[in-house]
Specification:
The protein has 746 residues and is an alpha/beta fold. Helix content is 26%, strand content 18%. A hairpin with a 2-residue loop joins β7 and β8. The relative contact order is 0.10. It binds beta-D-glucopyranose.
Length: 746
């Protein structure tokens, strides 16, 4: 470790080895801090690469830096820490932040893909390994989980989300933060997590990133806030404010959100970081007239640390001097930041010794990445059980498409530290699988998923015509989703659909594997293909995972964490919609093609439908096929009536009625028939992953406490209301055995 070379004002804190920090020592540090040092702790700098800029060196020495973002070269990170602990007056170590979103060096499926696993344990494991690997680079803080409810597939960041449902997102968001933070933050390999983006960021108008959100308070509380409340209750170390404007007040200056809800209502003790320059952007929003007022609004609302922009450093001293910002507010922010540093053990061990941690990309990490990718894939269609493919009856397989052998594109968005040279592609995995068993005709056909060049179509058609089956590996390149990568149309880009047409014309059955960062509108594609496996962006081990699924070494078990629309015009479309006064029904639905010419003006079926597409989604939330079938029988409810505070036990006999093993995700939904505010037609309340061997059965039991039925009423009070409830237990949001019960106060 570097030696202590400059100690202008010796104190007990300026050497990391001097003593162990304790919370009361934090109070003493706080008492000795100058105003500039305090504001420094509230400021996060951008790393700017190597060599470390003189500005950053000096700023750290002067105690003007609380955190550095995006520096992951270990020797540089250790040098930054050395500057902080040995050359700044008070020796306060740094938070080193990085977006570790779905892996560090080993890349797991994108979060939306992980959500399709409906497996908290898998999500937790992926985050745990991501933390272990990130910690080898000295990273001690990640900006994940992103728990924005995402109901608009046009939004590029849906890829980074855990889907559309508040319950699923809460369970998996908590699993993810627990994976990052471990059971103790100070343990080697645990890193602090960040619940983002508080709040409503996923509801941007027309699915454009950063755009305005208008979310009534009742909906905000019932839909958008629950995952954040769950994360706060589970001890997430930090929160991040959203870029977006929420009902006229941008989140990064929104005191109601940051103070009244988060601190006063939820009693959250961690700190809030702004998003990247989002404080400065308060002026762009037209909310603050200049950076000084932006700093005022942000600090006053409860943003404790500023990411990258410098309005705090530049203006807080003046605002404090003018008495506009209370010093206690500054102390409270700094105290929380110091607390986290202490909890992470940084006062004792600011430096990273990577040799104490497992080597990134080791075989165990890769195996877990493969298992996660297997669990994430969703089988959307499987005509005549074409899948799994039997190697015994295959002589020749055509592998076609721009994503079949592209190590980079399968990784997905937010992979700063992932290196595609470690990716295992579908082509290489299938070549290994079929070696000595069947021939492969590979034609990449299109350079990218966006290409309109059909030059190689002829070759692809010939290769398909000569094969027993055509495996088309298509979808979206990773750059088409993620931050600021939104789409107005969400079909297969480029001329991929024309490629499908041409291959379909050969008569060779098509198995379509789609890699994408969002749901795609593939209604017109479905009739042309025999099977569809939706793989999201599956990560480093995507190839072997997909190959195992295609050839029956593994079985598909993922279920959709988000509704797939038929057409983009249906968006927003999600299963937990409200009923409306004229709900869509089959009887009421009229397609425009069936309206007689010169019909008199009527309101037709008078229902909440479109004229040019069916009102149902293409694939509903919770949907996913297996290689076997599951039946649900003998639904039993412990009560027909119960009182508030009691628990309903629900059980069902689940049978694997097919002849292969499988894993089912049993989903429990309810509908509260009458509420003081209208309730969704269905709400997920619980789920379980159950492995069942072919031909076997198992009772699946859920305990549904009446607390789980609570919602925010008209007065924004969280309450369970008495009345009638419907309940469904099945393998998807649109199927299942139905029961009913009543909550009474008699
Ligand atoms: C994103 C955040 C991210 C931050 C730091 C922003 O642009 O919105 O989610 O954590 O950058 O990279």
């Amino acid at each position: 470790m570097p030696s202590n070379i400059s100690n202008e004002a010796p104190s007990e804190m300026n050497s990391p080895t001097a003593t162990s920090a304790k919370p009361d020592m934090l109070i003493s540090i706080l008492a000795r801090m100058t105003m500039e040092e305090k504001i420094g702790q509230m400021s996060q700098y951008f790393g700017h690469g190597e060599p470390i800029s003189e500005h950053l060196v000096q700023s750290i020495r002067q105690g003007r830096v609380g955190s550095v973002i995006n520096e992951v070269r270990l020797h540089t990170v250790n040098e930054l820490q050395r500057l902080a602990v040995e050359e700044s007056r008070l020796g306060i170590p740094l938070l080193i932040g990085r977006d570790v979103i779905h892996g560090f060096n080993t890349i797991f499926p994108i979060p939306l893909g992980q959500a399709a696993s409906w497996c908290a344990e898998t999500v937790k494991q992926c985050a745990h390994i991501s933390a272990l690997e990130a910690a080898t680079a000295g990273v001690n803080w990640t900006f994940a989980p992103m728990i924005d409810i995402s109901r608009d597939p046009r939004w590029g960041r849906i890829a980074e989300s855990l889907g559309e449902d508040p319950y699923l997102c809460s369970v998996l968001g908590v699993a993810m933060l627990q994976g990052f933070q471990g059971d103790e933050l100070r343990k080697n390999g645990s890193i602090a997590a960040c619940a983002k983006h508080f709040a409503g960021y996923g509801a941007g108008e027309s699915g454009r990133d950063y755009s305005t959100t208008n979310i009534p308070e009742n909906e905000l509380r019932n839909v958008y806030l629950p995952p954040f409340k769950a994360a706060a209750d589970a001890g997430v170390a930090t929160f991040m404010s959203a870029f977006s404007d929420l009902n006229g007040v941008p989140a990064s200056g929104n005191k109601w959100l940051m103070t009244e809800i988060l601190r006063e209502e939820w009693d959250y003790k961690g700190f809030v970081v702004s998003d990247w320059e989002s404080i400065q952007q308060l002026t762009t929003h037209g909310f603050s007239k200049d950076n000084k007022n932006a700093a005022y609004e942000a600090s006053n609302s409860g943003i404790d640390m500023e990411m990258v922009s410098s309005t705090y450093l530049d203006h807080l001293p003046e605002l404090i001097a003018e008495g506009r910002i209370d010093i206690q507010q500054i102390d409270s922010a700094v105290n929380k930041i110091l607390q986290l540093k202490w909890q992470l053990g940084l006062f004792d061990s600011p430096y990273t010794d990577a040799s104490l941690l497992p080597t990134p990309l080791n075989s165990q990490h890769l195996q877990i990445a493969k298992d996660a990718a297997i669990k994430s894939c969703v089988l959307l269609k499987n005509d005549k059980n074409i899948l799994p493919l039997s190697t015994e009856s295959l002589h020749c397989v055509a592998i076609i498409g721009p994503l079949a052998d592209d190590p980079y594109e399968q990784l997905g968005t937010w992979i700063f530290d992932g290196d595609s040279q470690h990716s295992q592609t579908c082509l290489t995995a299938i070549e290994q699988e079929l070696s000595g068993k069947a021939n492969i005709n590979y034609v990449k056909t299109m350079e990218t998923s966006r290409s309109y060049d059909q030059t190689n179509f002829k070759q692809a058609v010939e290769s398909a015509a000569a094969a027993d089956v055509a495996l088309l590996i298509l979808g979206e390149e990773s750059i088409l989703s993620g931050e600021a990568h939104c789409r107005a149309e969400i079909g297969l880009p480029g001329c991929q659909e024309q490629l499908i047409d041409r291959i379909a014309a050969t008569g060779t059955p098509i198995v379509l594997v789609i890699m994408a960062g969002r749901p795609l509108t593939i209604e017109t594609v479905l009739p042309k293909v025999a099977a569809v496996l939706f793989a999201w962006h599956p990560g480093t081990m995507g190839g072997p995972a997909i190959s195992d699924l295609l050839f029956g070494k593994a079985f598909p078990s993922g279920k959709l964490p988000v509704t797939f629309p038929r057409k983009i015009g249906q968006v927003p479309i999600y299963y937990a919609q409200k009923h409306s006064g004229k709900p869509a029904t089959e009887a009421a639905f009229v397609h425009m093609d069936d309206i007689p010419v010169h019909s008199p003006q009527t309101s037709l079926g008078m229902a909440a439908t479109h004229l040019d597409t069916h009102f149902s989604p293409l694939f509903p939330f919770g949907f996913g096929l297996a290689y076997t079938q599951f039946s649900y029988r003998n639904l039993e409810l412990s009560h027909t009536t119960l009182h508030i505070g009691e628990t309903l036990t629900v059980r069902v006999l689940l049978t694997n009625t097919g002849d292969t093993d499988g894993e089912e995700i049993a989903q429990l939904y309810i509908r509260d028939l009458v509420g003081s505010v209208t309730r969704p037609v269905k709400e997920l309340k619980d789920f379980k992953r159950i492995k069942l061997a072919a031909g076997t059965s198992k009772w699946v039991t859920f305990e549904l406490s009446t607390d789980k039925l609570a919602f925010y009423d008209r007065n924004m009070q969280l309450k369970t209301e008495t009345g009638q409830f419907h309940l469904w237990l099945g393998g998807c949001s649109q199927s299942g055995m139905q029961g009913e019960f009543e909550i009474t106060d008699d």
